[in-house]
């Protein structure tokens, strides 16, 4: 059974998209190499504490990552084997073995080889202990990920569980958004990086890192190197016993998923949502708004996404007040809006095939899209305004008012427009809302959509930011507040135009979207343009029902076709560009501002560390590099599909071919 399930997982990976695995593999490999270098070259007194912190970070990624990415890897689910005559323990063993197949586990194993490097620096006995600790630590990490994900999914059936899971994910996101602020707070007192590298963590923190299960392997190696072999053996035994306990817990959870129904009732909402529904005006648009408010309150997946976005903004404010650096606090509302857009870009897929009700109601598409946009504004904009305006008032950050006034309306309109457009144009199909099974976290894989929308949101803020910057740094109050007016106009245009594109696309391609939500992208991915023309599809040369290529929907169609047919390597390149293009732009812009204003602090702006004669050229080069990366990303999305001699794209595999990434069956 174990071998069969491993081969099933390999077949899924072989026929599935490789772009995400390629990006994850490159990033993971870079992080693993950094971990190995730390174990090999950090000063020995500091190496153990640093390595314990790095292993804790790897474990945290395993434990919290799946809840932030649609439930993690769901290619093999326990429910698939409910009708097979296998004991639950064999199914559990097969699922555990298949969890090590892929990119993540081997990369993590490579990072844990750092224990062997650390042990070799202590001596032969410590190296031998490390050889045993590496697989034991890896097994504990994978099991902890599976158990915590399953427990988090079960907890989403309750209101308290949703809040706790949202707080966990929001804490990680808020720390990521505030890392520069935290670095500045600590660096006021010492050279943080130099002190950590040479001295490690202070003694209480090192003890805490060792006491965590993620630090037991490092602690065992350190104890063996210091001659305490009994402690090292005890820690290895603790790793083994903990893994056995987690296996028992996971077996019980798998048994529940195999034997329980695959349907689950929704959670009953109330509070402000119920009050808002009661005061809404009657009519078709009011009905859509009421439905969406109820869904955001009752669907566990939507409720989790909503709370992650809201809690992240609150925690950014809290971290700023905690460390005494408040310059990030007024920007917390912008963080909330950006996350709100990212978290809601897949709402149609979360609703599943309930879309048929909208498609069978004449003229309902426009009201459905506009209603979703209004609810998005009602949910996220008031909280964002309170966080940014309240943060500026409480902390006295008066410099933030023009920036917030310019960027907040632009980002609100872009979030409300692009989120619904992505939901219509590029959904990530997942299970039906009533068929979550034992995993309420499970939803479509939206990593690609995240990668694309994140830079779009950044670019949408550029025009009002540029105008505001000219007014602020040029001492021109009129121009400064013109940036706020531009942001308001831009936000309104984003909301109206993108909403119009979305509902026009839903009117033209609603049946195709319904098919995608029912069967996945593979239902139509194998069809060529010629086949779609033959069937009267939306790619007809005559414009498909009156919307010719010059209409606004043509651009969306082209981007959608490029995403559907993009090779794995190109998809990996697009993901890297989308995630990193803003870094050189930020480095160049901030360095130029520092050079123009005569600022002394270099912070982590790399061009300022160059010789004085090269700082200005370095900053300009960073700007040009970022612009080139952004242009390459736009070109990959907007380029015309390849055409054969007849002017039509070469047809891909037919609809009867084996679907890439299709889930294997367990029987005929």
Describe the structure.
With 668 residues, this protein is mainly α. It has three domains: 2-259, no CATH class; 286-398 and 418-431 and 445-459 and 509-536, no CATH class; 550-645. Helices cover 72% and strands 0% of the residues. The protein has 30 helices and no strands. Helix 7 packs antiparallel against helix 12, helix 14 (272-279) runs antiparallel to helix 15 and helix 21 runs antiparallel to helix 23. The radius of gyration is 26 Å and the shape is globular. It comes from Nocardiopsis coralli. The chain crosses the membrane at residues 21-41, 47-65, 95-118, 124-145, 166-186, 229-250, 308-328, 334-353, 374-394, 400-426, 447-473, 479-498, 571-596, 616-638.
The coarse silhouette is globular
> How many domains?
3
**Major sheet size, sense and barrel closure:** none
Estimated radius of gyration: 26 Å
How many helices does DSSP assign? 30
Percentage of residues in helical conformation: over 70%
Order of helices and strands: HHHHHHHHHHHHHHHHHHHHHHHHHHHHHH
Strand content: under 5%
What is the mean pLDDT?
A: 78
Organism: Nocardiopsis coralli
Protein name: ABC-2 type transport system permease protein
Keywords: Membrane, Transmembrane, Transmembrane helix
Brief overview:
Keywords: Membrane, Transmembrane, Transmembrane helix. This protein has 668 residues and is mainly α.
């Amino acid at each position: 059974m174990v071998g069969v399930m491993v081969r099933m997982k390999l077949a899924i990976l072989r026929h599935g998209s490789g772009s995400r695995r390629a990006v994850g593999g490159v990033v993971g490999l870079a992080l693993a190499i950094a971990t190995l270098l730390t174990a090999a070259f950090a000063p020995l007194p500091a190496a153990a504490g640093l390595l314990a912190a790095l292993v804790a970070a790897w474990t945290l990624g395993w434990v919290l990552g799946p809840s932030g990415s649609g439930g993690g890897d769901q290619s093999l689910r326990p429910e698939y084997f409910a009708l097979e005559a296998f004991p639950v323990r064999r199914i559990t063993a097969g699922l555990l073995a298949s969890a090590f197949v892929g990119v993540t586990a081997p990369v993590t194993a490579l990072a844990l080889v750092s224990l062997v490097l650390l042990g070799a620096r202590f001596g032969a006995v410590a190296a031998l202990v490390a050889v045993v600790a590496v697989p034991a630590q890896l097994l504990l990490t994978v099991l902890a990920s599976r158990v915590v994900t399953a427990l988090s999914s079960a907890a989403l059936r309750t209101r308290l569980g949703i809040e706790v899971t949202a707080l966990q994910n929001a804490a990680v996101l808020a720390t990521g958004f505030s890392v520069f602020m935290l670095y500045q707070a600590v660096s006021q007192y010492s050279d943080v990086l130099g002190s950590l590298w040479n001295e490690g963590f202070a003694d209480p923190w090192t003890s805490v890192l060792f006491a965590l299960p993620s630090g037991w392997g490092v602690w065992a190696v350190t104890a063996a190197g210091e001659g305490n072999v009994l402690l090292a053996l005890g820690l290895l035994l603790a790793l083994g016993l903990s893994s056995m306990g987690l296996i028992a817990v996971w077996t019980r959870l798998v048994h529940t998923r195999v034997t329980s129904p695959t349907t689950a009732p929704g959670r009953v909402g109330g509070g402000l949502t119920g009050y808002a529904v009661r005061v809404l005006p009657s009519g078709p648009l009011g009905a859509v708004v009421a439905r969406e408010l109820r869904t955001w309150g009752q669907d566990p997946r939507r409720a989790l996404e909503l709370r992650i976005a809201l809690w992240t903004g609150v925690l950014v404010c809290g971290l700023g007040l905690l460390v005494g650096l408040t310059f990030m606090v007024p920007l917390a509302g912008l963080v909330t809006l950006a996350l709100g857009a990212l978290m809601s870009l897949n709402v149609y897929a979360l609703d599943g095939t309930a879309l048929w009700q909208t498609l069978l109601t004449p003229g309902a598409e426009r009201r459905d899209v506009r209603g979703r946009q209004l609810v998005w504004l009602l949910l996220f904009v008031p909280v964002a305004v309170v966080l940014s305006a309240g943060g500026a008032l409480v902390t006295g950050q008066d410099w933030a008012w023009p920036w917030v006034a310019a960027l907040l309306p632009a980002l609100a309109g872009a979030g409300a427009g692009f989120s619904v457009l992505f939901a219509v144009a590029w959904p990530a199909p997942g299970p039906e809302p009533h068929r979550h099974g034992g995993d309420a976290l499970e939803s479509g894989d939206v990593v690609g959509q995240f990668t694309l929308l994140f830079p779009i949101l950044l670019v949408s803020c550029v025009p009002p930011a540029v105008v505001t910057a000219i007014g602020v740094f040029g001492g021109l109050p009129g121009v400064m507040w013109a940036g706020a007016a531009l942001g308001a106009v831009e936000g309104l245009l984003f909301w109206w135009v993108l909403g119009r594109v979305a509902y026009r696309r839903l009117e033209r391609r609603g049946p195709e979207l319904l098919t995608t939500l029912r069967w996945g992208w593979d239902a139509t991915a194998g069809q060529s343009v010629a086949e779609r023309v033959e069937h009267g599809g939306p790619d007809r040369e005559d414009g498909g029902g009156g919307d010719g290529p010059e209409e606004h929907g043509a651009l969306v169609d082209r981007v959608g076709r490029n995403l559907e047919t993009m090779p794995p390597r190109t998809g990996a390149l697009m993901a890297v560009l989308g995630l990193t293009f803003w870094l050189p732009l930020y480095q160049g812009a901030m360095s130029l501002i520092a050079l123009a204003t005569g600022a002394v602090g270099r912070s982590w702006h790399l061009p300022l560390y160059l010789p004085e004669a090269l700082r200005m050229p370095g900053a300009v080069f960073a700007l040009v590099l970022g612009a080139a990366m952004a242009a390459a990303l736009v070109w990959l999305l907007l380029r015309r599909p390849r055409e054969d001699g007849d002017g039509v794209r070469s047809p891909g595999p037919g609809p009867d071919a084996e679907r890439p990434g299709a889930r294997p069956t367990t029987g005929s």
